[in-house]
Q: What sequence folds into this?
């Protein structure tokens, strides 16, 4: 996958993209990340990329010309691929695991990072194919949001993670929260790893993990269960979990 990021501050990405899994993905040739600074497409001595908003108001707005020209240059470079153009914006669709899986199927992504008070509306209307938000809050710019999107998408690319099943077992991949994870030592400060995980019985471990996923999701994010396609086994486990919770709460009430 090739990812192009249109940003005024490409140096912000040096740390996150030069470490750990993202670094290894690039070294393996599974992911290539490129940066394009809109200032390259300004034609005055001050390299102006923003201006005051029409109609008045505080702050400055990013001009359309440099952004359009930056994206058009990228598209020329990646031909014959088209490249999906995404604007990172607090007004966009909320980013989640399903969107990450969808984007991981793309051959090329072009991410536009807004800044200041935002971008000229014509970028939204005539250039971006989609707007994505990583949460209901406002950041200084779209750079941090772009980092989040790239990280979430990259780990879903074949070969990026050491174990191919790792991503599928993550929270949200299947719609449920992940089960508890343990490693050595088997006992630490009196806290023991659940016996089932030491049993070597893979079927019992599978059922325990599935039960914990359902239980954790029910307790912490119950709204997620409405979106998940549950098997008959899941439904049975969920009934048992709910009965146990009700019984526990009833004792607490007494």
A:
């Amino acid at each position: 996958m090739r990812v192009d990021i249109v940003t005024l501050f490409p140096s912000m990405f040096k740390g996150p993209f030069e470490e750990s899994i993202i670094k290894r993905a690039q070294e393996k040739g599974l992911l290539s990340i490129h940066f394009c600074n809109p200032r390259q497409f300004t034609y005055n001595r001050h390299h102006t990329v923003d201006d005051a908003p029409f109609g008045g108001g505080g702050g400055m707005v990013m001009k359309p010309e440099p952004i359009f020209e930056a994206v058009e240059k990228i598209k020329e470079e990646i031909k014959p691929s088209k490249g999906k153009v995404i604007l990172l914006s607090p007004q966009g669709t909320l980013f989640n695991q399903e969107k990450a899986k969808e984007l991981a199927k793309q051959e090329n992504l072009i991410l536009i990072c807004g800044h200041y008070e935002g971008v000229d509306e014509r970028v939204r209307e005539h250039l971006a194919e989609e707007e994505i938000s990583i949460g209901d809050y406002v950041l200084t710019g779209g750079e941090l949001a772009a980092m989040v999107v790239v990280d979430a998408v990259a780990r879903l690319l074949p070969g990026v993670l050491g174990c191919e099943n790792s991503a599928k077992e993550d929270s949200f991949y299947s719609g449920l929260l992940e089960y508890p994870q343990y490693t050595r030592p088997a006992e630490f400060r009196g806290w023991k790893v659940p016996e089932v995980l030491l049993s070597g019985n893979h079927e019992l471990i599978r059922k325990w993990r599935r039960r914990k996923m359902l239980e954790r999701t029910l307790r912490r994010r119950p709204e997620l269960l409405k979106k998940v396609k549950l098997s008959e086994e899941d439904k049975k486990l969920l009934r048992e979990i709910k009965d146990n919770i009700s019984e526990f709460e009833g004792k607490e009430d007494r």
About this structure: The helical segments are 14-17, 20-27, 64-78, 97-103, 121-126, 143-154, 202-220, 232-253. Strands lie at 2-6, 32-36, 50-51, 61-62, 84-94, 108-113, 130-133, 187-188, 191-192.
